[in-house]
């Protein structure tokens, strides 16, 4: 989810340990926590929530975020902390979703570990690949106190689990952002999606959903009306895909993979020269071989099949979420400035539809490399930023105006401290979000009704 060169370096380095919150860091970052001003910025009272102020956690007193006035937050999970199942919390927190299970809130969280072949965490007998160190953990959270009750490993033996998405049938689809495999020293081939039942009370057996494609996966979103799964690809020449399952809610039963194309515009390049608000009519082309044998050596093998049939190209598609009858996706490096685009796909049955550019960043001060996203219960979008300086959560109003929602104040984390996994609780009152490195999961609440979120 981060810049590929930066990410490769970070994943090979040691896990970041301890946190020290000094006065100098507070002053330096507090000074930069003022709101940004630019075209299409939503001020307080018109969708935004106002300027950000350094704010300590309610439950631990640590200074981790700057938030608008009236907002509070708790720290609910930290990397390397002992979990309820006796394992240590894996590092590199990434995509996540919230589920209502038995009167509690359950978070299923990805861990984007991309180490060389080593050892899976958890029970190796239930791991997909005993040499792959990524997977998911599940957190049970008290919805009233917003504090952790229980946590455990829920899937292991996968690699580079970046993002994914929730399904209407109560599962989390976790996606591998790599096509490494046997030639790289792993016991299994990688580059697939896997499904985790949010109701499971322990580690589940990992099964690769090969029909959904083998490529550099990022996120997915499911249209609850059709059961169609939309998938993003995190490469600089990326496709937007959809999976039409043979059986609704049973992804393991197979289906058909397709890639988005712009009607009557073969090979359309969305990365530059786009106009906000202009609808582009969509068609879909079939991918004949979703699980190509050469994917480890050619990660673009699936993309090339679609592109040869006239499919469209995007610049690093990352976040993907369903809401308001649409699929919203972030193009992290799209736009004339290369700083990010936010797209909306409006489906029309099982064919066609429209693709519309909602927002394109004019400068890094306004939006710098949007990554994960989620749709709020009130229709706005939360954008997790993954830039090269200060890291922000941004909000986007339904009419395309942007505002600051939170800033990462964790010392020495700006380079790798991207926000990830933003997701609202089922009742819409709590925004859960991760900081990737050092791994932290936070619960934020406040006067949401005063703005677009």
Can you walk me through this structure?
This protein is mainly beta. Helix content is 5%, strand content 38%. The strands form five sheets. It has a nine-stranded antiparallel beta sheet with strand order 11-12-13-14-15-19-18-17-16, with helices on one face. A six-stranded antiparallel beta sheet has the order 1-2-23-22-21-20, with helices on one face. A four-stranded antiparallel beta sheet has the order 3-26-25-24, with no helix packed on it. The two termini are 24 Å apart. The model is unreliable at 2-39 (pLDDT under 50).
Question: Which key phrases capture this entry?
Answer:
mainly beta, nine-stranded antiparallel beta sheet, six-stranded antiparallel beta sheet, disordered N terminus
Rounded average pLDDT: 90
- Sheet/helix structural class: mainly beta
Q: Please, how many helices?
A: 3
Q: How far apart, in Å, are the first and last alpha carbons?
A: 24 Å
The counted number of beta strands is 26
Radius of gyration: 20 Å
Order of helices and strands: HHEEEEEEEEEEEEEEEHEEEEEEEEEEE
> Order of strands in the sheet with the most strands?
11-12-13-14-15-19-18-17-16
The low-confidence parts are 2-39
Shape: globular
Describe the largest sheet: 9 strands, antiparallel
Q: How much strand content do the residues show?
A: 35-45%
Helix content: under 10%
Short description:
The chain has 453 residues and is mainly β. The chain contains three helices and 26 strands. Strand 18 and strand 19 form a beta hairpin.
Summarize the helices and strands and which ones pair or pack.
Elements: H1 4-11, H2 23-31, E1 52-56, E2 63-68, E3 72-78, E4 93-101, E5 104-111, E6 134-142, E7 147-158, E8 161-166, E9 171-176, E10 193-197, E11 217-222, E12 229-233, E13 240-245, E14 255-262, E15 279-286, H3 301-307, E16 317-323, E17 326-331, E18 341-346, E19 354-360, E20 370-375, E21 381-385, E22 392-396, E23 402-408, E24 419-424, E25 431-435, E26 440-445
């Amino acid at each position: 989810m981060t810049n590929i060169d930066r990410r490769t370096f970070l994943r090979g380095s040691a896990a970041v340990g301890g946190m020290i919150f000094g006065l100098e860091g507070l002053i330096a970052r507090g000074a930069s926590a003022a709101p940004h001003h630019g075209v299409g910025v939503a001020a307080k009272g018109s969708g935004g929530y106002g300027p950000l102020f350094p704010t300590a956690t309610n439950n631990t007193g640590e200074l981790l975020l700057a938030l608008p006035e009236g907002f509070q937050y708790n720290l609910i999970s930290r990397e390397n902390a002992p979990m309820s199942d006796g394992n240590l919390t894996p590092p590199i927190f990434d995509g996540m979703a919230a589920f209502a299970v038995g009167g509690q809130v359950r978070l299923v969280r990805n861990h984007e570990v991309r180490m060389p072949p080593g050892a899976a965490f958890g029970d190796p007998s239930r791991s997909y690949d005993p040499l792959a160190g990524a997977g998911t953990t599940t957190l049970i959270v008290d919805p009233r106190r917003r504090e952790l009750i229980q946590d455990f490993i829920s899937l292991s033996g996968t690699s580079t689990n970046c993002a994914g998405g929730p399904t209407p049938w109560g599962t989390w689809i976790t996606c591998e952002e790599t096509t490494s495999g046997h030639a790289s020293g792993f016991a299994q081939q990688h580059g697939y999606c896997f499904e985790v039942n949010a109701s499971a009370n322990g580690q589940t057996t990992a099964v690769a959903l090969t029909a959904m494609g083998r490529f550099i996966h990022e996120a997915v979103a499911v249209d609850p009306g059709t059961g169609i799964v939309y998938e993003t690809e995190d490469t600089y020449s990326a496709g937007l895909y959809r999976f039409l399952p043979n059986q609704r809610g049973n992804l393991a039963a197979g289906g058909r993979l397709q890639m988005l194309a712009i009607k009557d515009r073969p090979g359309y390049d969305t990365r530059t020269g786009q106009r906000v608000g202009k609808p582009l009519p969509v068609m879909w082309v079939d991918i004949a071989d979703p699980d190509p044998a050469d994917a480890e050596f050619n990660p673009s093998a699936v993309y090339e099949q679609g592109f040869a049939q006239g499919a469209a190209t995007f610049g690093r598609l990352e976040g993907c979420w369903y809401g308001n009858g649409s699929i919203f996706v972030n193009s992290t490096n799209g736009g004339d400035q290369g700083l990010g685009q936010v797209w909306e796909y409006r489906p029309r049955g099982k064919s066609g539809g429209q693709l519309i550019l909602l927002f394109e960043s004019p400068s890094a001060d306004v939006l710098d490399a949007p990554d994960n996203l989620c749709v709020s219960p009130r229709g706005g979008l939360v954008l997790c930023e993954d830039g090269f300086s200060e890291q922000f959560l941004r909000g986007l109003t339904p009419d395309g105006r942007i505002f600051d929602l939170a800033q990462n104040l964790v010392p020495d984390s700006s380079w790798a401290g991207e926000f990830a996994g933003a997701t609202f609780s089922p009742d819409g009152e709590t925004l859960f979000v991760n900081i990737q490195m050092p791994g932290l999961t936070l619960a934020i609440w406040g006067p949401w009704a005063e703005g677009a979120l």
